């Protein structure tokens, strides 16, 4: 039965001020039930304050075959990493 | 709800009985739903049903501990079937998923309307209990409504099963609005709401969900009453046999 239902990607905001993060996916017949399934599957232990669900089919993904050309050129550009700054301990989530 | 006066103050027994009614409703339905664990149509629904079950067992724990002066387990596991005070609706067999959802819609809509009113009870424990539980039950009501609508307005087979599920459970609805002497005393003193106050609201809420589900409101059948007095269907004995087996057979077991 579940393979008749489309797949939905679940994004959960764990607390105010943070971004929604990908948590996983659920099967559901429609968007409303996808939200409920996401709530019941991923926020049972108070993990979230907000949920997004997106049809998995709507996700445009990069091609793993192209990983080399897409990502490797960044490997030796150390100057793109802001590692030369001192970050105060009080600053979280950066 | 009227103000309490010393003359018509309900007895301690009435309050105890009411706590058993509410606690047994939640306990028995929670136990019923837990049987779906591992058997639901899909994994996501399995988790939904387990969540509903755990909410209900949590409610039962609070209510029976209050009734049993801290020993809720004794009430849950060491009472016999005639001493249970749950309504007949919650002990009805799960049937298929449609029948389970029909039962849950009929029960959780009632429980939600009841708990909303219990948050204004004159009894402090019930106010605290209901204020927390009303949110859980609001979700139960929404979830079961969604499923009734989808199955009713789904395929030919899902609509047929949903109609059968409703039909099975429908005769147990009048009991939810029955007022006996215990309940009368409690409602006169502002402890418990009189359910007849929200019967119209209940019936129109159910009718709205069924209309959206493209289902007919079932014809009224001969109502079956008696759960609040311990007159149960044969099903409850089987539920208790499974639920109570372990603590009765191994009284020293801990978990």
TrEMBL record, chain A:
<dbReference type="Pfam" id="PF06243">
    <property type="entry name" value="PaaB"/>
</dbReference>
<dbReference type="InterPro" id="IPR009359">
    <property type="entry name" value="PaaB"/>
</dbReference>
<protein>
    <submittedName>
        <fullName>1,2-phenylacetyl-CoA epoxidase subunit B</fullName>
        <ecNumber>1.14.13.149</ecNumber>
    </submittedName>
</protein>
<dbReference type="GO" id="GO:0097266">
    <property type="term" value="F:phenylacetyl-CoA 1,2-epoxidase activity"/>
</dbReference>
<dbReference type="InterPro" id="IPR038693">
    <property type="entry name" value="PaaB_sf"/>
</dbReference>
<keyword id="KW-0560">Oxidoreductase</keyword>
């Amino acid at each position: 039965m579940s393979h008749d239902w489309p797949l939905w990607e679940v994004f959960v905001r764990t607390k105010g001020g943070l971004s929604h993060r990908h948590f996983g996916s659920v099967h559901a017949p429609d968007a409303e039930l996808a939200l409920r399934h996401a709530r019941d599957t991923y926020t049972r232990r108070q993990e979230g304050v907000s949920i997004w669900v997106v049809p998995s089919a709507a996700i445009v993904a990069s091609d793993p075959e192209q990983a080399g050309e897409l990502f490797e050129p960044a490997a030796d550009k150390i100057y793109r990493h802001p590692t030369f700054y001192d970050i105060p301990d009080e600053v979280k989530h950066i | 709800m009227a103000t309490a006066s010393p003359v018509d103050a309900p007895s301690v027994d009435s309050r105890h009985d009411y706590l058993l009614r509410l606690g047994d409703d939640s306990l028995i339905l929670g136990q019923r739903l837990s049987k779906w664990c591992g058997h639901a149509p899909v994994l996501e629904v399995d988790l939904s049903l387990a969540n509903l079950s755990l909410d209900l067992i949590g409610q039962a724990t609070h209510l029976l501990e209050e009734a049993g002066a801290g020993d809720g387990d004794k009430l849950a596991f060491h009472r016999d079937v005639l001493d249970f005070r749950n309504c007949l609706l919650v002990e009805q067999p799960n049937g298929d998923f449609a029948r389970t959802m029909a039962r849950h819609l009929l029960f959780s809509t009632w429980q939600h309307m009841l708990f909303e009113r219990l948050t204004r009870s004159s009894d402090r424990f019930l106010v605290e209990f209901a204020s927390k539980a009303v949110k859980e039950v609001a979700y139960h009501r929404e979830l079961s409504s969604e499923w009734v609508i989808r199955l009713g307005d789904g395929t030919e087979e899902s609509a047929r099963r949903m109609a059968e599920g409703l039909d099975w459970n429908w005769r147990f609805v009048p009991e939810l609005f029955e007022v006996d002497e215990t309940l009368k005393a409690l409602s006169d003193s502002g402890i418990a709401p009189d359910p007849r106050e929200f019967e119209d609201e209940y019936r129109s809420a159910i009718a709205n969900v069924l209309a959206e589900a493209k289902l007919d409101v079932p014809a009224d059948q001969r109502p079956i009453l008696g759960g609040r007095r311990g007159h149960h269907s044969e099903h409850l004995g089987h539920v208790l046999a499974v639920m109570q087996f372990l603590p009765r057979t191994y009284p020293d077991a801990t978990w």
